[in-house]
Amino acid sequence: MRKALRLILSILFAFLTVGLYFSNRIMYMKKKDDDFIIDREKSAGRLNTTSFEQLPKREILIASNFGYHLKAVVVEPHQTNKYMIFCHGVTENKFNSIKYMNLFLERGFNAVIYDHRRHGESGGKTTSYGYYEKFDLKAIVDWLRLDRGPDLLLGIHGESMGAATMLLYAGMIEDAADFYIADCPFSDFQEQLAYRLKAELKLPAKLLLPVADLFIKMRQKYSLKDVSPISVIDHIKKPILFIHSKEDDFILPTMTEALYEQKQGPKKLFIAENGVHAQSLNENKEDYAKVVDEFLADYVVVKDQRNKQMAGIE
């Protein structure tokens, strides 16, 4: 009887240990230091702090429905109704979005860069890889439409977790932007975790993920199954440009290819030759800019011209 009790207690202890450990890994993934990100971007020539400081901009706090504030910077060098919102990846912050922002500032857009929950200067205690972040993105969109008026030409760009967040927002909450750019998203969070468990820890995902999922449900009130862009991609009718690096071994390019194949309606796919995860722009700048220009010409310029004609600008 005592042996059986010890066995049960040992199994229960192992179950609790595994559940807490892996749910903690998911909820509290180690972030990069904010100063490290700024120094990295400056050293790589992607951030010129003098030029950035000289841009007309506003720093704002936007309330999340979950009891914290999101730190955002609205950059407005142009007299236009064209805006881009940028969603950074996990462990990063809004300064990682500046390289993408600059690309679109050059194309006549204004921009909103912001910190996801638990990142940068935003509040929030845990990361949920798009589950709660998609509601925060809606808060950003709602604030921008209230501040600038409803007749925006709006695009959203996301990198990695930011891209998954963007797709979940558009597929589950509202397809409210005029176009989207999804740079190296995962297609399904459970599948991504299974891949990383095998690649990094050589552990059996079939045994560990159900335990981690149970603890995430108990501690965070959502399931890993709820973080699946590919399950909602059919709901997105607006144009999407999908981007991924061929050499990405953190989130495999096959995930973006699967999303592209599943997406109905206007879409474009760019698989960059160079760079690993989230390096498509850094390592393929000319090609990246070219495909963005082609995408905008195919799906955005006509709408922009029509809006101007209706407003009596042209």
Report a brief summary of the structure.
By secondary structure, the protein is an alpha/beta fold. The chain has helices at 2-27, 34-43, 49-54, 98-105, 133-148, 161-173, 189-201, 205-220, 229-232, 253-262, 280-283, 285-299, 301-310; strands at 57-63, 69-75, 82-87, 110-114, 153-159, 179-183, 240-245, 267-272.
Question: In words, what does this structure look like?
Answer:
The chain is α/β, with parallel strands linked by helices and 314 residues long. The chain contains 13 helices and eight strands. The chain has an eight-stranded mixed β-sheet, sandwiched between helices. The N and C termini lie far apart (86 Å). The mean pLDDT is 94.
Which descriptors apply to this entry?
eight-stranded mixed sheet, single chain, 13 helices, alpha/beta, 314 residues, 8 strands
Topology:
Elements lengths: L1 H26 L6 H10 L5 H6 L2 E7 L5 E7 L6 E6 L10 H8 L4 E5 L18 H16 L4 E7 L1 H13 L5 E5 L5 H13 L3 H16 L8 H4 L7 E6 L7 H10 L4 E6 L7 H4 L1 H15 L1 H10 L4
Parallel strand pairs: 3-4, 3-5, 5-6, 6-7, 7-8
Antiparallel strand pairs: 1-2, 2-4
Helix pairs in contact: 1-8, 5-6
